[in-house]
Amino acid sequence: MMEKWNVIAFPGLKKAKEQQQDGTKWWLKWRETPAAMRTSRFVAANKWAFLLTLMGFLLGKATILNELSPFAVAYFAVIAFMRRDLLLPVFASVVAGVLFAPHHHFLAIVWEMIMVYLMQKGLESFEKAEISYAPLMVFTSAFFVNLFVALIGPSLSWYTVTMTVLDSVLSFVLTLVFLQAVPIFTYRKKNYSLRNEEILCLIILLASVMTGAVGWQINGLSLEHILSRYLILLFALVGGAPLGASVGVITGLILSLADMSAIYQMSLLAFSGMLAGMLREGRKWSVGLGMLLGSSILSIYLTGPGEVMASTWETCAAVVLFMLTPKTVIGFIAKYVPGTKDYTESQHEYAKRIRDITAERVTQFSHVFKQLSRSFGQVSSAGEITRRGEEMDHFMNAVTEGACGTCFRKNHCWDGNFYQTYKYMTEMMTSIEENPEVKHEELPARWGKVCKKTDLVLNIMKREYELYQNDMHWKRQIYDSRQLVAEQLSGVSQVMEDLAKEIKRESQTLYRQEEQIREALEIMGLSIHSVDIICLDHGNVEIEIVHAYTRGYDECRKIIAPLLSDILDEHIAVMNESVPAGREGLANVTFGSAKTYEISTGVAGTAKGGDMLSGDSFSAAELGNGTYAVALSDGMGNGERARLESSTALNILEQLLQSGMDETLAIKSVNSVLMLRSPDEIYATVDMALIDEHSARTTFMKIGSSPSFIRRGNEVIPVSASNLPIGIIQDIEVDLVTMQLLPGDILIMMTDGIYDAPGYAVNKELWIKRLIQEVDSDDPQTIADCLLEAVIRYQGNQINDDMTVAVAKVDHRRPEWSTLRIPGVDRLERPRTVS
Predict the structure, then answer these.
(1) Quick count: other Cβ atoms within 10 Å of Cβ 506?
(2) Which residues are CB-neighbours of 214 under 8 A, at least 6 positions away?
(3) What local confidence, expressed as pLDDT, does residue 709 receive?
């Protein structure tokens, strides 16, 4: 229960637990190291060791209200769980800090830390030393030690009890804060991003450390004031006015608790941090000027003349330190603060490294699958011939052992006349192969003169031939399955190789282009929340933008899309638009390359005899990458079974093509699936047109299908190919016909029910051309309906076969809005495509 509560109260508990495990490992290694080597390894092992030890000294010296010291035991408990290798140095530094405190309770704080250590050892003995118990351990030790001190003190009053409870509660809260802040210095992860609560906890920790410097002065200037303003300058430059003001409020609050006479510091630092953050666009000098103006203005109103000069000199000292701070330090801080440019670049770099690693792994898997495909596909022709000869010898031996083994003429036939006997056996085998039901009377007459057991030899040979045929059938099945596996592995390898190229292409740094798009849109007065470029390839652009929209204005189509079209030098259109849940007033819009051509389709069909279920299947869908597919498939026969085969062929083919598999390999894969899925002889024709929506170049895949036709004005162009349907033979030939379509072209595809309707006495191609030319319409659905109706009327209103006709029209796509040109906005520089 305690652990669940801490998880709710402290979202970073998981990282703290990982840090605790790392600290335990370091402690065990450090304890096993020889004493002479501990010091040198300690310094080399962790560059933050000295900083953490120094922080322990300042937190031990820090006090609140001049009598409470909640920082020391909280910090010691966190170090005890997270960095056990620094336990002794931190303990010593905290004790030293307590000795330098103005109102220290040396024995009380020492006993609090000892109690925390003893409770941790006790939990370890029960294997319950979880870091989630640290706040409760600190509260318990602080409460009982302070209560004991109050009991043995000179007087026990409600005030001392109240201060004891307050000190314990503050120690509890500070432990939760330090649990989130300390891992920032020690957590060993390259891509460590800070949440808002972690940033606040870090600021509280740094302000608490500066509290330990209260009372220290350099030439009359307070060291804690210089450090606090220096800290505000760093965060104001990195995070702007919100972060600068937040740091000012927190730092001023904690410093005012440590020194009640400096209560005005909270408002002074908050205002100075806000003003410095507002001027961060001018970089360092303007941030320093903002801090100087803010602190000087409020000092005049809140303090006397003498303190105004002291505050001004303290600010000047902080600005000098700030100006001397290297850019690398500021960049290092910015990488961990969300919303900054450095943070965005670091996230992009990390994502790029991850994508590069992923692409390399995918490429390796692609090579593995390619090698497996070669292993399955390597079939030695010599080996096949050898195996066939061995099967022939086995067949002949089985016949001779069954029929000739007990014959008294065995030696005469096989020893004396071997070649003649072998020739007769081969002739009989040929006769059985041509006619498995051959009878004794149909054999040559000379065989009866040579062999006295013709009937027995014939029966044994028939039986062995049947077994041989069954054996060959299953071997062919195994061979076909092996070929299918080889082709599938080859296809998967190709898809993974393309995926690796896609990942490498996406790994290109595009955040500069995103910033350029954001700036161009903000010039138009739009409120842009985020810009994410997914792809910038010509003809395949994909950009996601989240922006604040006004209902009824449609800014994404009227302003954003035309502007993107100009800076990308390519027509861009809105692909998808949605409103994120819980984010009213924001629209998530996907912009992409507008297609140069658009395809409109129509289909009409009917089943044989007017039944409800036709054996033909139709599909029209986007395959991705600007390819539109129109497909027809005619299953063997009619009814449900034919429908199942035709729809299966189209669905599998469409999915394989969408995955990026090569067209020829996809067809062969579908053919193998249809052959292996059922022992019956089933097949399906496939007629597919793959239309490139950017160029209108079309690839026709025709597998056993009827010719297609292209109507271009008054001309009708046939498109045909001669090959068998899929599902009949393994080594199918795939004919790919490529043609360039023009705007206004109409593609007509049909099954054999339409094409064969006039019968064999009529020239079918001329008859279909005449029907197409007679249709006076450019609408695809009207053309499909008219052609189907004309065929049915020609057959005397009889439907002799399943009939389906599909029509697709290619037209230029007209943009909704013209390109929007903004002076001063340059064209976007596209990265080179990864080959």
Answers:
(1) 18
(2) 62, 222, 224, 255, 258, 259
(3) 93
